[in-house]
Each structure stands twice: as structure tokens, then as C-alpha cells.
Design goal:
Blueprint lengths: L5 E9 L10 E9 L3 E6 L1 E4 L4 E6 L10 E12 L6 E7 L2 E9 L1 E6 L4 E5 L3 E5 L4 E6 L9 E11 L10 E5 L6 E4 L2 E10 L2 E2 L8 E8 L3 E3 L8 E8 L2 E3 L2 E3 L3 E5 L7 E3 L4 E7 L7 E3 L2 E3 L2 H12 L27
Antiparallel strand pairs: 1-2, 2-3, 3-23, 4-5, 5-6, 6-13, 7-12, 8-11, 8-13, 9-10, 9-12, 11-14, 15-16, 16-17, 16-18, 18-25, 19-24, 20-23, 20-25, 21-22, 21-24, 26-27
Length: 331
């Protein structure tokens, strides 16, 4: 039996560094008692070079949802003709990156040899494994022109047995994503599996990432197809859960996916994400993820010594590695 929400809202002093990975800013947390919603995470502004994003994960009270360890909401933003989206070369280990654009286009280049343009509705999936370097930039054809950018940048941690796999890259065009309609709800499966549907992204653990949109008010009951840990991210519009309404840029974390039922207000767009959690803890420092802290120390040293592979047609040393905060220790 679903119980009515009881809200206990407070300001919790969460200590974070600039990347938001280590526990210095106050952040609003909402806990809901006697409800299936365990936690509400609101977007926190973070600067990634010349671009402002809204960060959802990692969060101090909830570092991961299933294998999802990092979620940034980019934009929406209108870039003037003299501006561009440029993320210089930077390294990763122990994870897969997922880029999903709603507006705009980005040129991806990596040390595997990939050069791939991603446009709205498509998915770029790069598995870093033992180590990869990539850059993301405004395509040459769009430089000097006004443009819009809007999308999601997501990291999915790899299972311990796959953390050192050989890096690879996969691009799925918008037309290649499973899409269907149920009772007025339009579904797109971006990654993983959901019931009888399976996305083309080659994931390494059981997970799901779906986009849901509605034109009219609709009741959504996906519970029988969810598993593991579940999050509901409201990008646009509103959702109602157990007689409580939640707005845009909020991530709701469910206590029990089998009780996940909600009403989407007309014109809303939300994302369901989650999957099976790993038995081991995951550590994250800058762009590195691993089940072994010493492996991250090795990657930091390798980047500082310029020992990562290079990207063809990219010059310079790439993004400098930020120093760890004074008194840093693994938690």
C-alpha cells in the first residue's frame, strides 16, 4: 500500500571540491519518509571549462544509482557566433561515457582513432576500460555561427572484471534507438534493456536508460520492468508521485523500483535510469573511476607524465589534472 508523503526538508552542509567528487557548498536535500522516494537530488551548477552544467551525480548521500556514477545536464544554452563548445583532450579509465544530445552537435575524437559527429537524438558510447583520451568540440562547419547546445553527459561504471577492457567506441544514430508508445507515453530506450526492448549500446552490466515524453497527462507504471536501483530525472514539466508534485531538474531516487508509479503532466519529459548495483565500492577522482584506489593513483601519474595515448589532429597537453584538496583521503 502506498503511503502519503511526509516531507522533511533541511539544508545539509556537504563538502565538495570543484568536481563535486569529494565531500564545500551547502546543498538542499529532501528526504521523504513513509514514501517510495528515498531522496531528491537537485541540479548543482558546475563549470566545465567554458560551459556551465547542472550536476546530479555523484552526490554525497547517493554516489551512484545502479552503475550510473556521473550525470551532467548541459544547457540548454544559445551560443553566440564567436563562442564554441570545446572540451580539450582528457583521459578516462574504468567507465563508459554516454553522450545524448537534445539540441546541437559535437565532434568526438579519441585516442582509439574515432572521429564521430553526434547530433540531436543520437548516442555516443565510449568505453574507456584500461585508458582512453578524447575531446569534444564544436564541429568546424558550425564555428563562427550561432548554435544551441542541450544534452546529457553520463558515466557508467564498469564491473570489476571489465575495468581494464580494451577501449572501444560505439555510435548509435537516432533512428537506431528503440522507440514505441504505450497509453499516450512515448518511450525511447537509450541504453540497456526494458522489458522486451534492448538498445544497441554494448553495456557491461544490467541497466536501463529511457526517455519518456507525453503530450497529455498520463499515468506511468513501469514497475514490472524495472530492476536494481532506480532514479527518475525530470528534465521538463512536472511529475506527481503519491500526491506530491515535483518539477524540472530534480532527480528522484526510489527505495523500491517495484513500487515505481507516477503521473506525468502534459508536455513533460523525464528519464528513467538504473540497474543492478555493484557489490564493490567505486572510487572516483577527476575523470577516473575504479574499484581500486591505487589504480586511480596510477592513472593520475600516467596523465601527469603524458603517458596516455594521443589523439590524432589534436595538439597540446590536454586538460591539466587538478590537484587533490589538502588532506585528501578516500571515502
Amino acid at each position: 500500500m502506498l503511503l502519503r508523503l511526509a516531507l522533511n526538508t533541511f539544508t545539509n552542509p556537504v563538502r565538495e571540491n570543484e568536481q563535486g567528487f569529494t565531500f564545500a557548498y551547502a546543498s538542499k536535500v529532501v528526504f521523504l519518509r513513509m514514501s517510495n522516494i528515498q531522496l531528491i537530488i537537485e541540479e548543482r551548477a558546475r563549470n566545465i571549462g567554458n560551459f556551465l552544467v547542472g550536476r546530479l551525480l555523484p552526490f554525497s548521500q547517493k554516489r551512484m544509482i545502479g552503475p550510473f556514477i556521473y550525470i551532467d545536464h548541459m544547457g540548454p544554452v544559445a551560443l553566440e557566433a564567436d563562442a564554441s563548445f570545446d572540451v580539450p583532450p582528457h583521459p578516462h579509465i574504468g567507465l563508459s561515457t554516454l553522450t545524448y544530445l537534445l539540441e546541437g552537435s559535437v565532434m568526438h575524437r579519441d585516442s582509439i582513432g574515432t572521429e564521430q559527429l553526434i547530433e540531436a537524438g543520437a548516442v555516443n558510447w565510449m568505453t574507456a576500460g584500461s585508458g582512453v583520451v578524447h575531446s569534444e568540440r564544436t564541429p568546424e562547419a558550425l564555428r563562427g555561427k550561432p548554435q544551441r547546445m542541450h544534452g546529457l553527459q553520463i558515466w557508467v561504471a564498469l564491473p570489476a572484471k571489465d575495468e581494464e577492457v580494451v577501449p572501444y567506441f560505439t555510435h548509435i544514430p537516432a533512428s537506431g534507438l528503440p522507440a514505441w508508445e504505450e497509453a499516450g507515453v512515448h518511450f525511447r530506450l537509450i541504453a540497456g534493456e526494458f522489458g522486451k526492448y534492448k538498445a544497441g549500446v554494448p553495456v557491461h552490466s544490467p541497466l536501463y536508460l529511457l526517455e519518456l515524453t507525453v503530450e497529455n497527462d498520463c499515468l506511468v507504471n513501469p514497475a514490472d520492468r524495472l530492476f536494481g536501483e532506480t532514479g527518475l530525472y525530470v528534465l521538463e514539466g512536472e511529475v506527481a508521485v503519491e500526491n506530491q508534485t515535483f518539477g524540472a531538474r530534480q532527480l528522484l531516487v526510489a527505495m523500491e523500483p517495484k513500487l515505481c508509479q507516477f503521473k506525468m503532466k502534459a508536455g513533460s519529459k523525464v528519464y528513467l535510469l538504473g540497474g543492478e548495483a555493484f557489490p564493490e565500492q567505486r572510487y572516483i577522482d577527476w575523470n577516473f573511476v575504479s574499484s581500486r584506489p591505487e589504480r586511480i593513483d596510477e592513472a593520475r601519474l600516467a596523465w601527469s607524465m603524458q603517458q596516455f595515448p594521443k589523439i590524432a589532429n589534436e595538439s597540446g597537453k590536454g586538460i591539466p589534472m587538478p590537484e587533490r584538496p589538502k588532506g585528501f583521503k578516500w571515502t
